[in-house]
Amino acid sequence: MIGRGYLPIILVTLLIAATPLVISSNSFFNFTVLVLIIALAAQGWNLLGGIGGQTSFGHSMFFGIGAYTASMLQTHLGVNAWLSLVAAIAAGALAGLIVGFLSFRAGLRGSYFALVTLAFAELLRVLANASELTGGAAGLLLKLDPGFANMQFSSRPTFMLLALAFVFASLVITQKIVNSRFGAHLVAVRENEDAAKALGVDVLTVKLKAISLSGAMTAAAGVLYVQYFLYIDAGIAFGIWISIEALLAPMVGGRGMVLGPLIGAFTLHGLGEITKSFAGRVPGIDLIVFAIVLIVVIAFASSGILGLLKKLADRFSSKEGA
Amino acid sequence: MLKVENATMRFGGLIAVNNASLDVREGSITGLIGPNGAGKTTLFAIIAGFLKPTEGAISLYGKDITTEQPHRRAISGIARTFQIVQPFAGLNVHENITVGAYLRHAKPSDAVEKAREVARQVGLEKDLEKSAASLTVAGRKRLELARALATEPKILLLDEVLAGLNPSEIRDIIPVIRTIRNSGVTILMIEHVMQAVMNLCEHVYVLAQGKMIAEGTPTVVCNDQAVIEAYLGKGSAERIARQSAENTGGPNA
Ligand SMILES: Nc1ncnc2c1ncn2[C@@H]1O[C@H](COP(=O)(O)OP(=O)(O)OP(=O)(O)O)[C@@H](O)[C@H]1O
Ligand SMILES: [Mg+2]
Fold first, then answer.
1. Can you tell me the ipTM of this complex?
2. How far is the C-alpha of B58 from the C-alpha of B143, rounded, in Å?
3. Residue A188 and residue B50: Cβ atoms within 8 Å?
């Protein structure tokens, strides 16, 4: 028997895992790998911002810390890729704890918290761009050496399955949290901090737990990125693009819902690709699509695609019952 | 069991609570009354740890808790409701109550079951699946009560849970409050509805302009000169006494 909420996760994962059986186009796997990396980064955001209600504008800080930790350990110290992955995830969690401690303890909420996260991300971008350890403006290149031990795979479907395994793990972890006491506390903090306190919820600890888990997940996405593209620079790792992707995917897919980030990432990038195939290589056309999708979601489905589906399902079932 | 000693709360120049003390006996229903703006809600916030008093001490079962965080006090057994209801608006009634139940039940199925039981106790069992935001005023007050009760407190602080209810709703909820007390929970309640205070409370404290001006049984307190003046203005006690003397002593009596 499987617990509440796990069935859709398993089905969606199996669906994606089966694509290599019927599709062989490399551009499809390139597309899917990028979407899965974004979905993983966005799941980190969703845990803190969607379920916990602490909106971040700077999740690139965790993405970048993950990417740089993994690549610096490998290039400078020759550490094994999988060990570097573990260290990068730990670094993401630690960074979350530090940022959380500084901002939540000071009582920062809402847009103040969001702006502080943005400031941290920008600070790290500037530092990474200037420091020698991070390769400065030139960035860092991982040595191409495919093989399981190096977490590099020349076959794109194989890398896609790796990314999918990470996404699957993030979905299961998120669902476990949602079903737990910690999940209920997190939602309570989002809905009303004072009421939560009165019911014995340790608001600060709950937020710190959430932000370090969130940082860990998004850092893992940064590692996947660098293992796939074998290159990182400050503009990619700490760039605003991934902060926006991490925030947009849950907003579109369904903020605070377990499958929201994955659905959102696929929808946004799917629409982006379709538009590109019509409009050709007009620069920035996919960004325009993003903007339109966001406006449509905010105007007509503020709880995202999954929220809308749920509402329709509720209406349908209540009509059935009537 | 719960003691407030010489609590003072200053907001800048305003003294909301002024050297007020109170002592709640275990197993009692104790009332806290007083005119609008007297500082009652502020005193509750001090007891529950939401405000740090400028001066004074709070203790529970003899243990000083003055510097404890609100969530620690909830664990120690203090639960409060909010005068301005604070539901988790995005959640349904059952989920709202379950958050409270999680304080003593870590396992989800236990917490969910406890929440259902509490909902039954306060008469919300039909509304479990309803969104908290869709409840009527009376429903929201019951939800405040249920959530606090689900934490299985030793002492329950009720801040005007009857305000905004119509007479029949008040009649419905009074026995609920009495049952809670009979189940072993001590109650300290702020209330403006005097019928309920007379009906439920064994002991009443009266706060006016931040000062504790009287205490005693409801009847004693209601006939207290200082209390009447606090509610109706200076000189009113004397005026009322004179009028009633004239009425009883008059030819038409
Ligand atoms: N956080 C605050 N900052 C400044 N002043 C406050 C604050 N909270 C309460 N006050 C003031 O303290 C006084 C006491 O308020 P309080 O809410 O405790 O009264 P109350 O007895 O509960 O009144 P009511 O019966 O209307 O609920 C009021 O003058 C109020 O304006
Ligand atoms: Mg009040």
1. 0.91
2. 27
3. no
